[in-house]
Structures are given as C-alpha cells and as structure tokens.
Amino acid sequence: MIIKDYDKFIIGGLGGEKKLRGTVEIKGAKNAALKAMAAAVLFDGLVTIDNVPETKDIHTMSEILKSLGTRVEWKESTNKGTKVLEIDSSKITSTDIDLELAKSMRASVVLTGPILARFGKVSFPAPGGCVIGERPIDLFLEGYQKMGAKINLDGDIYKIEAQNGLEGADIFFDIQSVGGTETLMMVAVLAKGTTILKNCATEPEISSVAEWLNSCGANISGIGTTTLLIKGTDGKPFSSNNSYKTIPDRIEAGSFLILGALCARELQITKCKPDHMEAVINLLKKSGVSIKVGQEEIIITNNSKDRVPFKAVNVRTHEYPGFPTDLQAPMAVFLTQALGESSVFETIFEGRFKYAEDLIGMGADIKILNSREIVVKGPSVLKQLPEGEDLYAHDIRAGFAVVLAALVSKGTSKINNINLIDRGYQRLEERLKLLGADVRRV
Ligand code: UD1
Questions:
Q1: Digit-coded pLDDT (tens) for 323-377
Q2: Does 237 score more than 80 pLDDT?
Q3: How many Å lie between the centroid of ligand 1 and the Cα of residue 25?
Q4: In terms of domains, do 210 and 271 share one?
C-alpha cells in the first residue's frame, strides 16, 4: 500500500457506544527496533532484527542507514505482519547523517553514538522529530566530550571527532533520558576501558537491546537498573550474528487497551507483554475498567447490562516503570468519559497538550492550567467538530488520541496530518476496521 504524506482519516463515530469487538495483535516496539538498527553499525557484518514493525520511522531509519553505505534488506518474519531486517554495516562509506532524513525523526540522533564509536567521527544536523516542546541533546554531547570527543557546530551541523578513539568515562545523567542512555551505552561498548553511566533510564527497550548486545560480545552489567557498567572492546566492532527479536510495543498495546476501554464490547490484545504495562493497567483498573491479564495477552470487557461510568483518576507521567508520557494523550481522552475531575500532569516533556484544544472543540471539559498540567472533567458527550473544521495529529501519540476521540464521538470526523500517526502505528485503519470501526484513509 502506498502511504502519502497528505493522507487523511475519515472516521464515523460510535456516539459513545462500545461496539467494537475482536482481537488485535501487537507489533514489535518501534522504539526498540530503531535502537537495534542503530546498534547494527557497531557490527562489522550482518545483523538480523526480527519482529520489526512497518512504521514510517523504521523506513526513515532504514533510509538513513542506506545513505551511509549500509545494506538494508527486508524479509518476511515468522511473526505475520512484521518483518525481518537484515543490516550489513561492513561497507559503510560515509559518517555524515543525511540532513533532511534526520530532521524528520529525532531518534536519528541515537545513530550518532554507534557511528562515532566505530569510525571516530560523525556529523549530523540539529535534530527534529515530534513537535513536543524542547528536545535538547546536551546529554549526548556532554557524554561524547567526557569520552574524549571534540565537538564543532558548523551552521546547524554538528561535527564530532575522536581521532584517538573514545575512552571510558564516569557519566552522570542530570535527567533520565532514554535516548541518552541508549546512545552512550552503544558508544561505551566499543570504547577503551570502563564506562559507568549513572541515573540511566530503565525502559524495557533499553534493557532488551543491552541484553542482545551482550549476547553478541558486549560487556554491560546492571541492565535494568539506573547504573550501567560497561567494559569496552577498545574499538573492535562486533562480528557475531545473533538475531535481535524486537520486544512487543508496550505503547501500542497501551493505546489499544485505552481504545478497548472506550469503544469495545470485548477486545483481546495479543502478543503483548503486560509486565511492561503495569502503570497503565493499574490506573485503568482503578478507574473501573474490567481487564483480565494473561501471560502475553490482555482482555477488556465492557458489560452493557451493569454499566457504571468509569471513575476519574489522576495521571502523572513518569520514567519507566511509571505512567508513560507516550500514553498521556490517549489517557486524557479516556478521562473525558470518566465521572469526576482528573488531573493530568506531564513531567517528561513540556508542551505535550496541543491535542487538548481539539478535544475541547469536540465538547470535552478540559482546563489547560499551564504547559505541564490539565484538568479533565467528565463524562462529556463528544461531537464532531463544527462544519469545515478538521482534527489534527499533532504528534504520533496525540494523533492516536484524536483517532480515539473521533471514534467515541457523535458524527463524522476528518483527521489531518496522519503521516505522524503512520510514524508509530502500522496501518492503523486496517486494524481498526477489523474490530468493526468505520475508518477510511483518503
Ligand atoms: C524516547 C521515546 C519517546 C518517549 C521518551 C520518554 C524513542 C524513539 N522515543 O524519546 O517516544 O516519549 O523516550 O519516554 O525511543 N533531555 C535533555 N537532554 C538530552 C536528552 C533528553 O534534557 O540530551 C530531556 C528531554 O527534553 C525530556 C527528557 O530528557 O525532557 C526525557 O527525554 P528522553 O528520555 O531522552 O526521550 P527520547 O529518548 O527522545
């Protein structure tokens, strides 16, 4: 299927009825696969990555890798509907990350670490990506400097060099950063000596990539904790070809969990990892959602006979294992349908409430207190926007949130900018249609 940047979704709302029903299979986590793709540069040979979702961000990363001289091939996976990626970095010819491609995806900055570690230099543009407020890269740059690299900013291109290779260092992150932790971990595995990373992020995507690197010859200890101790190979790239199996996408699973609570009579979410989703499962249960959790599946039921409204709950985003910032916007849509007043406090990113205006336009009772906090009063009857007005996907997750709002509402909604939704959710409309939703891509 050809996906165009100007595609739109047309969604027929369910008018508050919970009519969807069926099973949705969770794809591999794009935020893990992207990092394993970047880590492929640490290998002098072929790397295979299984269970890769076919999202736009993965294609962008694949284009960036190819522009460096890496061979990237897509193969069918045994996990239907996902792919195996084969990446061969033995013939890299460039260490300059493509300007235009990098600007469209913030995660491209993660690639700077492996390139620098393997070739002693890298150049890249000041990063782009989601429109969710300030997203600085100071932690990356400080880490590179501590490990002996020199940094020059030439216009808006960073040029980083470590002519004599990188040395292990003792690095304390001021803020727990997912990308910062992953990137410096990938630099340290090829550096000279030992690196200690403190106040690391502990997201499961980081741990799974770290464990895979260890299976290929890296020496990382403390995986899953906030302190990582890494012994480097003194510049020697890895050659082992242990395939990386992408872990299930906990954010996609959480998104469908919220969708199930709002719109489905019964929804079975399979091939997921509930252990990675405790914060969202607990909060939804507290609000009164009926959730059954199995080993690799979650079932949500909405029994129409004894229907009681969901209860308001307060949400405070937090680093893992707390409530993920990536589910903040979908959760706010859920809260428009819960009885009472809920506060939503965003601790990770500033300016992640752009979707709230769209919801207010649909009839939600939301007060935006400041760039970190909103108050949602429910339940509200959501309606399509007035004639001539469209909804917008402001970022990947806010995009999913307006899809949810459109499904819950009365009337028909048009959503623009869905290329942002395609960055993180594989063919969302096809998967929603299978559950009985009226969604068209035009
Ligand atoms: C990753 C995820 C994103 C998720 C986020 C937080 C990917 C591709 N993206 O993004 O979906 O929302 O984790 O769970 O994996 N910061 C600095 N300086 C830096 C780096 C980060 O101040 O050099 C700050 C950020 O502005 C933010 C906080 O650290 O306030 C956390 O961001 P970070 O964990 O780095 O997010 P990403 O890795 O970009």
A1: 999 999 999 999 999 999 999 999 999 889 999 999 999 999 999 999 999 999 9
A2: yes
A3: 27
A4: no
Assess whether the C-beta atom of 309 lies below 6 angstroms from ligand 1: no
Whether 263 has a pLDDT exceeding 80, the answer reads yes
**CB environment 253-277: b (16+ within 10 A), e (fewer):** bbbbbbbbbbbbbbbbbebbbbebb
Distance 35 CA to ligand 1 centre (A): 13
Two tokens, residue 322: 């707390």
pLDDT for position 132: 36
CB of 174 within 6 A of ligand 1: the answer is: no
pLDDT band at residue 93, thresholds of 50, 70 and 90? very high
Q: What is the pLDDT of residue 240?
A: 73
314 found inside a domain = yes
Total count of domains within the chain: 2
Instruction: Name the percent of the chain lying above pLDDT 70.
Output: 96
Task: List, in sequence order, every residue forming a beta bridge with 229; answer none if it has no partner.
Answer: 196, 221
| Residue 337 lies inside a defined structural domain of this protein | yes
Write out the E strands in 257-411.
264-270, 290-293, 298-301, 310-311, 315-316, 338-345, 365-370, 373-378, 391-392
What average pLDDT score do residues 298-320 get? 88
Q: Is 372 in the pocket of ligand 1 (CB under 6 A)?
A: no
User: Would you say the C-alpha torsion 202, 208, 211, 213 has a positive or negative sign?
Assistant: negative
Question: Do 346 and 222 share a structural domain?
Answer: no
Atom of ligand 1 lying closest to residue 177 CA: 34
Q: How far is the CA of 34 from the centre of ligand 1 (A)?
A: 14
Ligand 1: centre distance to CA 441 (Å): 31
Alpha helices in 68-148 (DSSP H): 99-103, 112-119, 138-146
Residue 126 inside a domain? The answer is yes
Same domain, 183 and 77: yes
Q: Which atom of ligand 1 is nearest to the CA of 31?
A: 15
Pocket test for ligand 1, best of 132, 173, 175 (most atoms within 8 A of CB): 175
Is 139 a known ligand-binding residue?
yes
pTM of the model: 0.95
- Domain of residue 238 covers 30-245
Last residue of a domain, one of 245, 264, 282: 245
Does residue 146 sit in the same domain as residue 259? no
Q: What is the DSSP string of 198-213?
A: ES----HHHHHHHHHH
Give the pLDDT confidence score for residue 130 in this predicted structure: 39
Catalytic residue among 130, 200, 263, 272: 130
Instruction: Please tell me if the CB atom of residue 322 comes closer than 6 angstroms to any atom of ligand 1.
Output: no
106 is in an annotated binding site: yes
Clarify whether residues 393 and 433 are in a common domain: yes
Q: Given a cut of 60, is residue 133 above it in pLDDT?
A: no
At 210 the pLDDT is 98
Annotated active-site residue 130? The verdict is yes
pLDDT at 113: 98
SS3 91: coil
Q: Which protein residue has the closest C-alpha to ligand 1 atom 15?
A: 31
